[in-house]
UniProtKB/TrEMBL annotation:
The lineage of its organism: Bacteria, Bacillati, Bacillota, Bacilli, Bacillales. Transmembrane segments: none annotated. Keywords: DNA recombination, DNA-binding. Belongs to the 'phage' integrase family. This is Integrase family protein. GO terms for molecular function: DNA binding. Residues 151-358 form the Tyr recombinase domain. It comes from the Bacteria. InterPro entries: CB, DNA_brk_join_enz, Integrase-like_cat_sf, Integrase_catalytic, Integrase_recombinase_N, Tyrosine_recombinase_XerCD. Residues 33-130 form the Core-binding (CB) domain. One of its GO terms (biological process) is DNA integration.
Length: 362
């Protein structure tokens, strides 16, 4: 095989220091302790540089996926990622990366964006090893990557967004048992979806908002974006009313009060108790349930694949449609590059076409 000179030796035990990772890091990042020591060191360096928890965890999963591929092609059932030595790993060549891309594309049928993300994780790791002087070459550089076609973002129209919020409030179609539990979090679910549509927050950003970040006096919400970059989102009076109503709807003993308390709480249906924080996964599932129910109000949703992130697209698209300049939208979304925000220019294109159709010189 071209990617490892001696793939059958990779399963041998090495003298890795099993106590390298602090216990807090092991608890925070799933499967990080199952990776080779040199990758653990790389990930710790990214944590120290302020990379977000979501980015680090995504790297971990991507590295595990790569080693899953190595185990598959090596046909060695005893292969373990943690046993891979730096010396063996550095025998990877460009041809190996190209073969991995082929595998991801043709066998796994990953989308180009997903493939590029997995390859970028490897490139970043090799960049780190080059800077540390462990190697002089990065085999990922120069590898031809799949082309990502430009796609207009999927979004909700203003009318569809209004119908979605209406569906959240309407529990008439639910069974008695469903209604009983839904009403415990009705105000929270409405506030979550309303805030996503009206602020453009990422779902992970919303889940991590704390009470200290919600400033009623200044009408702003402070969020930690990618790379732990903080930005302030102006809130309308209507949004503040929605959030205040949600907080007031909670039982006093479960209501977040302290500055470090999370703004959005969860509910454990087994213990039938409110929890101090809601997970991103729980929010995503809730949003999908509400979107499914909303299809009875808005038939157009039958033909759209809407996710929590698409609500962020809806916010940006609505702003551009109202004539807000791209730089302002970039700032509100927390995009590092305006090129990322430029995807919403399709709305301006539609506006230009409409302007021309209205022009009559005859």
């Amino acid at each position: 095989m071209s990617f490892f000179a001696k793939l059958n030796d990779l399963h041998k035990k090495t003298d890795l220091k099993t106590d390298f990772l602090p216990e807090a890091i092991k608890q925070q990042y799933r499967k990080i302790d199952q990776l080779p020591l040199f990758i653990q060191q790389y990930l710790i360096s990214r944590v120290s540089l302020g990379y977000s928890k979501q980015t680090i965890q995504r790297y971990i999963y991507d590295y595990h996926y790569f080693f899953h591929y190595v185990k598959r092609v090596s046909e060695d059932p005893s292969f373990q990622p943690a046993a891979v030595t730096l010396k063996d790993f550095l025998q990877i060549e460009k041809a190996a990366i190209e073969h991995y891309i082929t595998y991801l594309s043709l066998e796994v049928e990953n989308e180009p964006r997903t493939i590029n993300r997995k390859i970028s994780a490897l490139q970043s790791l090799f960049d780190y090893l080059v800077k540390k002087g462990e190697t002089t070459t990065n085999p990922v550089l120069g590898v031809e990557r799949p082309k990502v076609g430009k796609r207009d973002p999927v979004f909700l129209t203003i009318n569809e967004a209004q119908l979605l919020l209406k569906a959240v409030k309407d529990t008439s179609s639910l069974s008695f048992r469903q209604k009983k539990y839904a009403e415990k979090l009705l105000a929270r679910d409405y506030a979550v979806i309303y805030l996503l549509i009206s602020s453009g927050l990422r779902i992970s950003e919303l889940a991590n908002v704390k009470m200290k970040d919600f400033d009623k006096e200044e009408n702003i919400l402070k969020v930690q974006g990618k790379g732990n970059k903080e930005r302030s989102i102006p809130l309308s009076y209507e949004t503040i009313d929605v959030l205040t109503y949600y907080l007031d709807s909670l039982p006093i003993k479960s209501r977040p009060k302290q500055s470090e308390d999370h703004l959005f709480i969860g509910y454990d249906f087994q213990s039938q108790e409110y929890t101090k924080q809601v997970t991103v996964s729980a929010l995503q599932k809730m949003i999908q349930r509400q979107l499914h129910r909303a299809k009875q109000y808005a038939p157009s949703l039958q033909h759209k694949t809407i996710t929590a992130h698409k609500l962020r697209h809806s916010f940006a698209t609505a702003l551009v449609a109202k004539g807000v300049d791209v730089l302002t939208v970039q700032s509100l979304l927390g995009h590092e590059s305006v090129a990322t925000t430029q995807v919403y220019a399709h709305v301006q294109d539609d506006a230009r076409k409409e302007a021309i159709t209205r022009l009559s010189i005859s």
